[in-house]
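Marked as duplicate of an earlier ticket. Keeping the data here for the record.
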Amino acid sequence: MSKIAPHDSAKRTLRERVAEIEWQYWIARLVPMLYVTVLTLILPKILTQSFVVSELGITPEQKVHQHLRAISIKVIAHGERIGSGVLLKRHHQVYTVITNAHVVQASSAPYQLQTHDGQVYAAALIAPPSGQNRDLSILRFQSHQRSYPTAKLATTVPKVGDRVWSAGFPTGGNDKVDRNLKDLEKAPWGLDTIDGQISQVLPVAIAGGYRIGFDGAIRKGMSGGPVVDRSGRLIGINGVHANPLWDIPEILENGSTASDELKEQIHNASWAIPIEYILDHTRL
């Protein structure tokens, strides 16, 4: 009786098993490698991109400009734009706007304030705290129908070299604003935004409260406008531009006269009143 040769299916099964083990081995090696690659190379790029470009597809710098536009205010008296201001605070329907004292002193009541959406509101001038002699004034208005964002406030003292943006409404060909409210609302917005860098943070402020010097070339009409850091936080308000033709500030708040070196630095820089003085003035 002849013997039956064993079928080679058992051998093929062994080969298949070996191949399967090898395949599992390489999967076990490659998957962790891919996982590490995603974590270390690809994911950080995605996260970085998501921080650089917001959900609206704009850069952080564009967001700063948008915020400046939203919080900047035109100060108007008798149909004429007299300066700039900042939306500082809201309490129910009442908004507090900070500007320079020399802005409101350039004219007289009644004052009006124009927001970025073209609306014009009657403004009340608020008396300053007793003993206050800084170049600051408070205006308030009510808005029952519309809501406006207010400034984000800085909580740290800026440093020399920090990048800042200042904004306001420079004096130009459209200084006059028609007294008719409908025409006022149609007036060009005209906000100017200037990129700069802090050059001075004085230990003793110049008279009026000016302590932050920066190289942004602000112009007449931008007084009272915001100065913000790279996160859009308010660090101060404009008030003195570089190389003024008159009213050159040389006296410090403690009554002393600036040295010749400091005088030159004062003349060559634009100046802002810092946020801590603003908060003290408005008692926020």
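See parent ticket for discussion. The chain has six helices and 13 strands.
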